[in-house]
Amino acid sequence: MGVLGIFKKGLTKTRNFFSESFTKIAAGTGHFDDDMLDEFEETLVRADCGLPASSDIIDTVKASIRKTGNDSREAVMDVVRKRMLEILGDKTSFELEEGKLNILLMVGVNGTGKTTTAGKLAARYKKAGKKVIMAAADTFRAAAVEQLKSWGERTSTAVIAHPEGADPAAVVYDAVQAAKARKADLLIVDTAGRLHNKKNLMDELAKINRVINREAPDANIHSLLIIDATTGQNAVLQAQSFAEVAELDYIGITKLDGSAKGGVAIAVAYNSKLPIILAGLGESVEDLVDFDPIDFVNSLIE
Ligand SMILES: Nc1nc2c(ncn2[C@@H]2O[C@H](COP(=O)(O)OP(=O)(O)O)[C@@H](O)[C@H]2O)c(=O)[nH]1
Ligand SMILES: [Mg+2]
Asked: Which candidate, 187, 85, 195, places its Cα nearest to that of 136?
C-alpha cells in the first residue's frame, strides 16, 4: 500500500463521518441553500474542525455563491476543498541538513504519542542510512525511560538515559556530547509534557534549549509538537498552551487512525498557523507518514 493508501485507511472513520453527513445535505436537489450551509457548518464542527475554521469555510462558500451564483454541490465542495487546503498550507517536511547535527525536540502533553513518534522517526532515519541517537529527557516517570529504551532496541538506536528523576537538561547535555562524538546525523529528544504546571514546563524546556544552544550552536534545531487527534478541541488548546511556553516549528498529529475527529488538523492549522508535518496512523513502527494536505483533504472529501 502506498502512502496515500495508508493515509486513506487511517482516516476511514473521519471520512465516513464526513461523507455520511455530506451526502445527506443537498442530496435531493444537488444545490445548497442557507439552511443546508448551516447544517454543513455544523457537520464541520462535529468533525472537530473547530468553530472559527468551520465558520470561515462556510463564509467562503457563501461569498463564492454570491459572486458566481453557483450553489451546486460540486461548486460548494470545490470551494470547501480549496479553503481547507489554504488553511493547511503547503506541504512541509522536516529535512535533515547534511553534514550537520540535526536536533528534533519532541514536545506535547503526556499520552499524545511523543515517545512512539520518536521511535517511529528513529526507524525512518535509520532506514535511510542516518546515524540516530535518542535522548530520554522525560525523566519524570521510570516507565517513560524504559519505553524509549525499548524503541531504541527495536530500531537499533542508541538511547542516552539517566535514572528516573534526573535533570532532563543533564540528559540532553550527555546526549549532545554523544551525538557530537559519534557524528550523529540526528538527535531526537523525548521530553515530558507536564502542562498542568506551565511554569515548570517552561523552565524545563528553556533549560533544555539553553543546553542545546550552548553545546551545539551550529546544529539544525527544530521542535515538534505532538497532538492526539482523539482529544479533539483539547488538542487545539494544547497547541495554544505550548506555543506560549516554547518556540514551535512543526506539529505532528497522532492517532488519526482511531478517531472520527480528523478534522482537528484543520482546527489546529487554523489556530496555530504552524505546519503539520507528520501523521500517526497506528502503534507500529511503520504507522507514520508525512502529512500531505492534498492527500488529507482528498481523503476526507472524496
Ligand atoms: N492508534 C494509535 N496509537 C498511538 C499512536 N501514537 C501513539 N499511540 C499510542 O498512544 C499511547 C501513548 O503514546 P506515548 O508515545 O507513550 O505518548 P507520550 O506520553 O506522549 O510519550 C501509546 O499506547 C501508543 O502506542 C497512533 O498514531 N495511533
Ligand atoms: Mg513519552
From this structure: 187
